[in-house]
Structure formats: C-alpha cells, structure tokens
Amino acid sequence: MSHGNHQQRLNESLSALMDGEASELEIQRLLREADAYGGEQGQRWSRYQLAASVLRGEKVAPVNLGLAASISAAIADEPPLAAIAEPQAANDSGAAQSRWWRPLSRGAVAATVAFAAVLGVQQMQAPQTGGELVAEVERPAQQPVQSVPQPSGFLVPSLNTRSVSTNPQLVPEQRVGMGASAQMQAVPSPELMRHLNRVMMEHSEQAARVGSQGMVPFARAAYGERPPE
Amino acid sequence: MAKKIPVTALKANSSLLAFLLVTGPALPLANAQGLDVSRAEKSAPAASDTALVQGAGQAVPPEAVTDPQAGGAEIQALLGKLSNAVTNLEYRGLVTFEHVGVMETLEVVHGIRNGEPVERIRFLTGAPREMVSRGHDAQCRRDGSPLSRAGLWSNLGLQNVQDNYQFLLRGEERIADRETVVLEARPRDMHRFGMVVSVDRETGLPLKSLLVAPAGRVLERFQFVELELAPVADSELQPHSDSARERDSTGHCGTLVSRWQLGWVPNGFKAVAARELPDGEMQVFSDGLNAFTVFVQQLGPGMNYRGRAVRGATVAYMDHIEVNDEHYTVTVVGEIPDNTAQLVAKSVKNQP
User: Fold this and answer.
1) Which of A5, A41, A96, A217 sits CB 3.0–4.6 Å from A208 for a disulfide?
2) B145 touches chain A (CB under 8 A)
3) Most confident of the following: A125-129, B248-252, B307-311
C-alpha cells in the first residue's frame, strides 16, 4: 500500500465524516491517523468545514490554525510564578512585586486574546435567525440533560457534573454589514449580566405563581442567585 | 485590520470553491447546498435512523392511547389530582435539578400557612443559595384568572391547556421509591416546549418533570430522590442560611394596565400578571404550562445589547426600541424556543 493510496483513502473517510456518512471503521481510522500525524488531517478537516460554511452562505471568519499553538507556546514559555517570586520576595519586596505581576499580566493578555478570538469565531458561526422558525435544533447552550430510564424517544446525551458558572451565556444576534472587529467587542458587561440575572429571576418567580410546574420555577429562580457580596 | 478581513475571507472563499471542484464527488455540492434550504430537516434523517423520534410536534403514535375516551378520562382525573396536590399538600424532600449538562441537588419544603403555600428551597451543591417564598397565590386567585395555580386545572383552564398541548399517558415508573404515572404534554405547535411529568399515583404530586425541546431533547430535569409526606413544622419554613432570600409577594399578581402592547404572542399565551418595576414594567404570559415574561425598562442607552442569553432551559432575548426619543430595553424571558422569544420581543410596541 503506497502512501498516496493511503492518503486518498483517509481523505475519502474525512469527506464521509463531513457528510455524516462515515462508518465506525472509518472514524476509528481517522482518529488513529489524527493521533499519528496530527496537523495535516486536522487542517484538511477545518478546510472542509469552512467550505461547507461558505456554501451554506454563512459568514466565515478566517481561522488562524496557528493561533492556539502559539498561545500554548507563549504560556509554556512563561517561567513558573513561584520560581521567580520566592527568591525575590526574601530581600527586595519592591522589585519582587513588579516581577510578580509581570508574568501574570502577560498570561492574562494571552488568555484575553484567546477568548476574544474564540468569541469572534463563535459569533461568526452563529446561525442567522431571519424570521424563520427553524433553529431550535441549533440552540447552542441548551444541552440536554442525562436521564435514564426515559419514556422511549427522548434524546439524552451524557451528563457533566463539573460545576460551571451560573451566569447566562450570551449569543448576540448577527448584524448584517458589521465587521469582525465590531462583533468581537460584544464582551458582556457586568451591568448586562446583572440585568440578565435579574430578569431571569423575576420571571421564574412570577412563573411559579401562574404555572403548574410545582417547585421547578423556584429552583430556576434560586439557581443563578448569588449571595450578597 | 478590519479592512483585511473581507479580503482574506473572499480569498478563502474562492480558493475553497476551487478546492471543492477538484475533490468533486468527495463532497457533493448538492448536499452542501441543501443544508441551507432544509436546516430543520437536517437532523430528521439521523433521528429516524436511531429511532429517537416521537419528539414534540409529531403525530401521536397509535399505541400511546388505545382508547381515546378512557385515556381522556384518566388524564383528566390525573390532571385534577396534580393540581390539587401542588396546591394543598405539605411535604419535604431532596431533589436533583439538572440542566446544561450540570446536576445540582437541593432541599425543598412545601407547607401551607393560612391557606397559602409557603416554599423553601435550598441548594445543597455549588454556591449556597436559598429562597423562601410565601403567600403568592391569593391575589391571582381573587382575580379569577383561569391560569392561576388553583384555577389552572379547572374546566376552563384545562380546555386552554389542551388546545395547546396534547396529553398522553406514557406508562409508569418508580421515582423516589413511589409508583408514578408518566404523563406527557406534547405541544401542538413550535412555540412552546413539551413536558413529561411523572405523577405520584397516590397523591398526584409531580415527582419528576422534564422540559422537552423538539426532537425529544431534554433541556431540564427536576426529580425527587426522597419524599416525605407529612405536616411541615414552622421551623422548617424558616431560612437555614445567611444567604437566604425571603420573598413575600402577596398581592403582586398584578392589576397593572400595561402601556405596552404585543403585536404578536403565540397561540394560547395569555397575559396573567403585570407588575411595575422601579425602572419599567413586566408582564407575564402563560399558556397554562409554560410561561414567558416581557420586560420593558428604561435602563439607559448603554444597554443596547441585541441577542439572546441562555441559562439552562431559560432563554432571554434582548432588544431595544425608541419611543418619543426615549430608549427602552425589551427583554423576553422564558422557557420557550429562541425564535419565539425573538418574535415576541420584536412585536413590542407602545399602546396607542
């Protein structure tokens, strides 16, 4: 089996996966290859996804595949905090303070850049919600919960028990004619988060009064509540 | 920087098209183009393959109700029992509450004081959160709203609910060591979510409830692990932590005549309460099972976010309008589909 043949078969498997028609065997093969060679298949996959997005008429942000790698590299290059802080803190407290903060702020900047980039891309890929009533299937943050056993016919992906923020997750509406930079500025302000938390709580409490869901709305109302600070 | 992006995007676009033409059959064009037209149908074939259908809005499977008359009577009786239990029973229990793939456990206590329900709910996981709510039903009942908790399952309320949902018996299951009957409320249109409630056979108390999106996706589950049916002592209705929030909202059910009007609400949703806020007003709509609330507030021009925020099964769609040079923030919050929330928000207008 020549390398060229092998490569072609992998590409076909990748196409099949893209169309949702890959067999178990093909998926296994792709995963194995991804482990072995990494980059090339991954980039091809990204290109396929991008191509499908373009054909669907979605707005597409140019994806810099090297971004994640360069951010990890930047973070890996940082000396550990303790290594710098300890010897300095002993004698020179003023200098120690500035040394302390330098790597921290650099790391924070890297994290911010990564966050902004991810946010931007996600917004770009958000489905356009015209007036059409089709998008429940694509509701991003409402992941189904696990529940076994079920009455037949309910879809129940796996449960994640790690704790997450109780803040609402934002999905801004895509605005036609706006550049990517404008989209990226939509980082939620504390004021906005407070407002959303408040209206969700008020709604749940009122809903408890008029609905018939027993105590469920109370659970919702109390869910996102924060202890007074 | 900003100017660069469209150019690169364009470049990517054309080179990708070329790439596609080369690969040809590997990625059928027709297939990819079809995605745009039938986004709703996209998931349908996969669903039918795995026999995960019977989601919301689908035709009733014939085996679900063999004898519509007998089934109907049983469902009516069950609904009546449920309404009675929710309003009049005293109980305490431990509950799991799941959404967004996260599970929390909580303690619930439900008592009756002076004929009004008093509820205490406390999260046992995550950040300490506790809430005590008392006396919230009186005003609504006096208003005679058919959708108030007590009136909901009256004949009138029941009729409204059955116009919007189809009720099906889905068998039996054991929850918190008790026998329950599984009742499904399947929405008749796309503007509301379905529910599956496991009703305690003996008392009618809902011991498990699921909120179900189309295609049978479960968005939220509230389920008893342990239930104790016994009179509740006063001390159990007192806050157990410093962070507890007490909510005494007698008389809040709403007599306010709103200055805002909705150009459109989904079928069957009726205004059931309206209330003034320090910075605006809120109006609650319910179809008997699900509810959404419309907030119109003057929060200043800084709050000009347009889009949705999601937490668990609850969506908030935010928009803003200008009326007489005044800036108003519109927020529609509820356990309803995203698009429904958006449509409602877009339809808010000033009462002429």
Assistant:
1) A217
2) yes
3) B307-311
Q: Let me know: does B95 contact B223? Beta carbons within 8 Å.
A: yes
- Which of A11, A143, A192 minimises the CB distance to B100? A143
Selected for mutation to probe chain A from B3, B11, B16, B329 (highest A CB count within 10 Å) is B16
Amino acid at B159: Q
Q: B155-204 pLDDT, tens per residue?
A: 556 677 888 889 999 899 999 999 999 999 999 999 999 999 999 999 99
Distance separating the N- and C-terminal Cα atoms of chain A: 67
* Residue of B221, B295, B334 with shortest CB distance to A145: B221
pLDDT the model gives residue B233: 93
- Please answer yes or no on whether B331 and A219 come within 8 Å at the CB atom: no
**Predicted complex ipTM:** 0.75
A203 with B284: Cβ contact below 8 A = yes
Between A39-55 and A3-18, two packed helices, what is the crossing angle to 10 degrees? 40
Return phi, psi of residue B185, to 5°.
Answer: -105, 110
pLDDT at position B343: 93
Please, what is the angle between helix A66-77 and helix A93-125, to 10°? 170
CATH topology for B260-350 is Phosphorylase Kinase; domain 1 (3.30.200)
Domain extents in chain B: 68-248, 260-350
Each residue's pLDDT tens digit, B223-260: 999 999 999 999 999 988 887 888 765 555 555 677 88
Given the structure tokens 């609330």, which residue do they identify? B293
Residue A203 contacts B, CB cutoff 8 Å: yes
Q: Which residues contact B135 (CB under 8 A, 6 or more apart)?
A: B113, B114, B116, B117, B118, B248, B249, B250
**Superfamily for the B68-248 domain:** Lipoprotein localisation LolA/LolB/LppX (2.50.20.10)
Task: Please name the member of A145, A180, A202 whose beta carbon is closest to the beta carbon of B293.
Answer: A202
Chain B residues closer than 8 Å to A209 by CB: 136-137, 140, 148-149, 249, 252-253, 273
Give the chain B residue nearest A186 (alpha carbons).
B305
Question: What is the per-residue pLDDT across B151-169, written as a single tens digit (0 to 9) for each?
Answer: 444 555 667 788 888 999 9
Residues in A 2-41 with any Cβ partner in B closer than 8 A: 11-12, 15, 18-20
Q: Residues with Cβ < 8 Å from B327, sequence gap 6 or more?
A: B298, B300, B301, B304, B320
pLDDT of residue B100: 67
Q: How confident is the model at residue A64 (pLDDT cuts 50, 70, 90)?
A: low
